[in-house]
Write the structure tokens for this entry.
Amino acid sequence: MSWAEVGSRWKAKLSQMDWYLCFGLIFLFLVLIGLSMAAWKLNLILHDADALPIEAVAIKGERTHTSDAEIQAALQDLMQRSFFSADVNQVQEALEALPWVYQASVRREWPAKLRVYLVEQHVVAHWNGDAWLNQLGEVFDAPQKEDIGPLPRLAGPEGQSKLVLTTYRQVSELLKINGFDLEGLSLSPRHAWHGVLASGITLELGREDKMARIQRFINVYPTLIKQDKDVAKVDLRYDTGLAVGWVNAQKRASK
């Protein structure tokens, strides 16, 4: 076999291989275009609120202060999205921004529902007049509600809410087992404690030995009520003893 024949055979093979390669590349290119188009159309469908709308939102959890109207208003814009494009984290944030909602959890439920579980704030006290405290001593702002029963009025510097609530619980428990109701407790910027009983008696407790001073008041109260006067104020900021302000004396002083 001559070199010319060998060369022609190799040229024929290379020419055949080039055609196979071209057809293969063209086919691969067409497949990639088809997959891209399919992915693009699928993405359009998944984000089309008309094609895959959110048809319902199921709300679970005990609610006392959060209405359906408030929830609908909070989710109005987010509900315009499709089932798949709706961001459950944004839904959660929108719900937790409602004043009486403490925590919210959100999940998708096929085929077109969002399931929401709400936990409301468990309010235990007023704080600094117009705010509230929950059971953890956390401060939150929310509108006044008429259906909330009487709550203790607590006050103190910023960042001291947990301390004030804990102290209130301790002092209130000691007073309650001795027949007194603690209506309010406040901590001054100088860290002095001031209590108010449901009977209207105010207690000046100072900075230290709060529980010992409360016990001193409890011990001496039977003697105070034997007087022909009504107690207005008891100052317990002494190492021993106390000072008493009487209702009639305070009225004369105010005049």
